Amino acid sequence: MVVHTVTSLDEYRKLAKKHEKIIIKFTAEWCGPCRMIAPIFESLSDEAKDIHFISVDVDNSSDISSEFGIKAMPTFVFIRFEDKINEFRGADRNKLTDFTKALKDL
């Protein structure tokens, strides 16, 4: 699976209506930890086929960032049926893997 780059709140809302499970990675080009965790996020998108993976650059998509109250990067938001069920901040590989597995198992 591929990581879908989303640039507007409208675009996100359309995807949220189409996909039961979504993980959003809020990132920025200048963010070192974001660059470090990016390959892990992409790898998980290959493993968890039933989850839609989205990347949002906070500098280019302030409406989505504001909607989710993002204050730090990277932040990962886990969505099921258009509702946020979990979130964490930081480039923690184990946490990202565990939270992805938990969403997959729902």
From TrEMBL:
<feature type="domain" description="Thioredoxin">
    <location>
        <begin position="1"/>
        <end position="106"/>
    </location>
</feature>
<dbReference type="InterPro" id="IPR013766">
    <property type="entry name" value="Thioredoxin_domain"/>
</dbReference>
<dbReference type="Pfam" id="PF00085">
    <property type="entry name" value="Thioredoxin"/>
</dbReference>
<dbReference type="InterPro" id="IPR036249">
    <property type="entry name" value="Thioredoxin-like_sf"/>
</dbReference>
<protein>
    <recommendedName>
        <fullName>Thioredoxin</fullName>
    </recommendedName>
</protein>
<dbReference type="InterPro" id="IPR017937">
    <property type="entry name" value="Thioredoxin_CS"/>
</dbReference>
<dbReference type="GO" id="GO:0015035">
    <property type="term" value="F:protein-disulfide reductase activity"/>
</dbReference>
<comment type="similarity">
    <text>Belongs to the thioredoxin family.</text>
</comment>
<keyword id="KW-0676">Redox-active center</keyword>
<keyword id="KW-1015">Disulfide bond</keyword>
<dbReference type="InterPro" id="IPR005746">
    <property type="entry name" value="Thioredoxin"/>
</dbReference>
<feature type="disulfide bond" description="Redox-active">
    <location>
        <begin position="31"/>
        <end position="34"/>
    </location>
</feature>
